[in-house]
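User: Assemble these into one structure.

Assistant: Restating your components, then the assembled model:
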Amino acid sequence: MTGGRRPGEDWVCEEQAPGVWFCLGVKKWLVRRRTPYQALDLAETESHGRVLTLDGKFMLSERDEFFYHEMLVHPALLCHPSPERVLVVGGGDGGALREVLRHPVKNAVLVEIDEAVVEVSKEWLPSVHQGSFQDPRVEIIIAPGEKFLPAHPGEFDVIIVDSTDPIGPGAALFESPFFRACHEALRKDGILSLQAGSPLLWPSELQGVVQALRTIFPVVVPYLGFVPLYPTGMWSYVLASAVSLPSQEELERRFSARRLSTRYFTPAIFQAAQVIPPFVEALLSP
Amino acid sequence: MTGGRRPGEDWVCEEQAPGVWFCLGVKKWLVRRRTPYQALDLAETESHGRVLTLDGKFMLSERDEFFYHEMLVHPALLCHPSPERVLVVGGGDGGALREVLRHPVKNAVLVEIDEAVVEVSKEWLPSVHQGSFQDPRVEIIIAPGEKFLPAHPGEFDVIIVDSTDPIGPGAALFESPFFRACHEALRKDGILSLQAGSPLLWPSELQGVVQALRTIFPVVVPYLGFVPLYPTGMWSYVLASAVSLPSQEELERRFSARRLSTRYFTPAIFQAAQVIPPFVEALLSP
């Protein structure tokens, strides 16, 4: 590495895989703390604006969080004809909540295990949450998602799981009991969406999630999108539904009717994102 | 950065943008030399197999070069009904040539400016070229592409520009005179394809290429694909044609007829790759 600085000094770095490092130059550290659940660091970077890491994994940057949040939220919300009551599990930064609130929701509940993520985001990431924590439709609950769900059967139109990877505090959010709890907490025509990591780095994560969801939901749709900040830049999501999904024309109509303004997601991008390359398809064949 | 090693010691690193570094742990350096044109380094890495860099930029890794080479080559070759004579400009590693030879070509010419890239790849990257340099249909010419083309008017069915970025020896391959020379070197129904970098990092590169091509070719099709090794993982390509492109059904038919076996590219992936997100579309509006 050239230049006077080296990673570990004024750099925020992620070990994406053994022997694979991605590092951003830090202008200023804003937060460096250990919460009861994880290490939480927030840096002002030279290249990506403010950047949040949890346990050394990049969660978001101001520059390109839109890729992830738009693709996690809008497919599920648009596939529902009237998403009135929405649950976000995780997502303490408020970015997913911000996108949820662009739809005609009456009530959005955010259940985050780590209060510190919400506190830090409220203070330091206004460009991400854009005031969504203060929206009168929003309720914030500090609890583990897998504890919250069983007490709320049949309550939600859409559940968005905005989790970390299946290690650390987010591990329970990738297992069958959690998916069954989501199914129980959804209304009869409810829709679930979640992120399932990089198919190149963690093929068994995507494979396991899709297999588990197929035993619970009749409609399971994996899709892919760019997330430049995340390892390999190729990210997978899965949408699961108890009822069949609307036509592409209907998604286009709702996208216009709800006046969604987006930078990455469109209904056409969502359709294209469902075209899965052969090396990923090989993981998903039933 | 944790662990005993640091980038610059047993790491191969690329500065993707100011303050943005991507580093792979090196098991062994295989080649470290300065050619008349550029610095050429080849490493055996822990994570990605062998990795080639030119002037400190990652050109390919054995692990995931298929993303790039399949998407650069197959769209153009499949869009041509009978690509008999094909030119690859650059691509001294032989990966693009390998994919070209999977089509029913009679003659493929590779014009590479830097003989050392061909020599090193022949010796160290057999999994990439897969013997394509020795194929009897292949002719290797060491010359700058922009010098070669004017002597070969109307000769090629397809031209693939497999260039580095528009700095260093590859700079001339991103300018209008070069695109006009490609147009002149193509037969009347010829097709050109090239890579145009990361739309997120270098929007003006993609924008400039598309604008320049539109003044020369009636059909210009930008498309996007994942390339995990390249900065942001989101890569743009442009296909340009003097005649209108075949239907999706025809591409599917040719894909089957030519018995192409691929890991990332399919005709459906190519169709999906042409769906451009709003933030990129904004660059491309005429």
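Chain B touches chain A through 44 residues (CB under 8 Å).
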